[in-house]
Design a protein that fits this description.
The protein is built from 13 helices and 23 strands. The protein is an alpha+beta fold. A hairpin with a 4-residue loop joins strand 4 and strand 5. Bound molecules: flavin-adenine dinucleotide (FAD).
Length: 404
């Protein structure tokens, strides 16, 4: 059986490319999905709500959320960015809403709404879809791709799109590599930090916002809410820095020191001096003087500064005040491992970006071969950016193939 386009992988990027191509041409299209389920990651994404994109409509600013792929994506995001995603779904009856932190979800708060829109559009475009049929090998022979699947079937196509997702499973990397592409090694991105430290023990669930984080002996720094968990630290401030430092932190085997500033926008020394005057008789551990630092964490910071519970603000010595400021603005923690962020995890690594033409998403090495989504060495920080990459690269691949 011959198709104009075969899409390998029935995830977000593969569907978006297939739909775009179908809506702009009358090309015959086949999606091959190795599992029995389509759009599985869309389904489980964002805790079942699907964080579709981010409320960031300036392409250059949007591109700054991709630790790998920032420069490559500027052009593609100009031509299909977050505003286009919102419009695309609106045109198919799906309204997106924006949360305070900029993440955009379907109004229904159900990822099924996004799945239905994609499945409906593919059906409307007469895209043929085979599930439980994984591609095991691909060969390019005289202007055609020969695609062999694990059911023993062989298909041919004029164009081939690889949208097989993250390459954490080695098999995901083999198809592109077999066609001559360099694959950058898979490395986790977006993970939380394992930390055992009395300052945060049993404080799981407390969150501090704003906060800032710096990784010692590196230029890595980030700002954003920090969440204390049963294992250590998480939250956007930690996830962001884990993405930017994905390769460097893997090289350090996830053993490193960080400093957390629990009060990045204020000067605690000034406030402490004021408290000594205004609340001299009050025990300083009794109440956190900073709205953003919860009482229980405040008490741990006071203890870490070696200040007893009974100490009043007026009894605070200069050395103790300095130790306290140090705990507030530069709490040092030892990280000894990582854990997966259950809400969203991605891998960096995949097809080398310089081997892809980002105007069309076509391979620079093999004519007719295209890439979209996480199979490329592109990944974003948390907040809807990874799906935006899938929509953007899928759109351009599908549009280019339609024009051929
Ligand atoms: C738990 C979780 C939650 C997430 N939440 C969010 C979120 O809210 N917002 C966000 O932006 N990002 C989120 N992400 C990241 C996002 O899901 C991915 O970046 C995105 O799904 C990538 O899309 P893709 O189409 O490239 O790959 P995938 O969605 O992984 O799809 C690839 C498909 O290819 C199939 N496949 C692989 N190999 C073969 C083969 N040989 N033959 C046939 N089929 C094959 C796979 O089975 C899969 O169905 C989340 C990720 C996880 C794991």
């Amino acid at each position: 059986m011959h198709f104009d386009l075969i899409v390998v992988g029935g995830g977000a990027a593969g569907f978006f490319a297939a739909i775009t191509c179908a809506e702009r041409s009358d090309k015959s299209i086949l999606i091959l999905e190795k599992t029995s389920h389509l759009l599985q990651k869309v389904k489980i994404s964002g805790g079942g709500r699907c964080n579709v994109t981010h409320d960031c409509f300036d392409p250059r600013e949007l591109s700054r959320n991709y630790p790998r792929g920032e420069k490559s994506l500027i052009g593609p995001l100009h031509r299909f960015g977050a505003a286009d995603t919102v419009e695309w779904f609106a045109n198919r009856g799906v309204t997106l809403k924006t949360e305070a932190d900029g993440r955009m979800f379907p109004d229904t708060d159900r990822s099924q709404t996004i799945m239905n829109a994609l499945l409906g559009a593919a059906r409307f475009g007469a895209v043929e879809i085979h599930t439980s049929e994984g591609v095991v090998s691909v060969v390019k022979a005289s202007h055609r791709f020969e695609v062999v699947t694990d059911t023993g079937d062989t298909y041919t196509s004029s164009h081939l799109l690889l949208s097989t997702g993250g390459t954490r499973v080695a098999a995901g990397a083999t198809l592109a590599a077999s066609l001559g592409h360099e694959m950058l090694a898979a490395t986790p991105s977006l993970f939380t930090f394992k930390i055992k430290d009395p300052r945060i023990t049993e404080l799981g669930g407390l969150s501090v916002s704003p906060a800032s984080v710096h990784i010692s002996q590196s230029a890595l720094a980030s700002a954003g809410p920090v969440l204390i968990t049963h294992w250590g630290l998480s939250g956007p401030g930690i996830l962001k820095i884990s993405a930017w430092g994905a390769r460097e932190l893997a090289d350090r085997d996830y053993q490193f020191d960080i400093t957390v500033n629990w009060l990045p926008d204020d000067d605690p020394a000034e406030l402490i001096a004021a408290k000594r005057q205004s609340e001299g008789k009050r025990q300083l551990a009794s109440r956190s003087p900073f709205a953003s630092i919860p009482k229980r964490l405040w008490q741990r910071l006071v203890a870490a500064a070696k200040i007893s519970d009974a100490t009043t603000w007026s009894q605070l010595s200069k050395a103790q005040a300095e130790a306290l400021v140090d705990q507030i603005t530069a709490s040092r923690f030892r990280v000894s491992g990582k854990s997966t962020n259950k809400d969203e995890f991605v891998t960096c690594g995949g097809v080398a970006r310089d081997e892809i033409d980002f105007k069309s998403m076509q391979s620079k090495l093999v004519e007719g071969l295209y890439f979209a989504g996480e199979v490329i060495d592109i990944d974003g920080v948390t907040g809807g950016f990874n799906f935006q990459n899938a929509w953007t690269t899928g759109f351009h691949a599908g549009a280019d193939i339609a024009n051929r």
